[in-house]
Design goal:
By secondary structure, the protein is an all-beta fold. It has a domain of 33 residues. The protein is built from no helices and three strands.
């Protein structure tokens, strides 16, 4: 999910499922890319840069 950080509350502006299965590891943000890994070893990299 993508949501602006505001004092008024959490209002998602975008949502997507990028990987299936169980994900025990925490997603990592590095240089505008979010990396996600599931328990089967699959890795997905999603660009969130403008």
């Amino acid at each position: 999910m993508i949501a602006p950080a505001t004092p008024e509350g959490f209002q998602p502006t975008a949502r997507a499922q990028v990987i299936g299965g169980k994900t025990w590891t925490v997603p990592v943000l590095a240089n505008g890319i979010v990396f996600c890994r599931n328990s089967q070893g699959d890795v997905v990299a999603v660009s969130v840069a403008n």
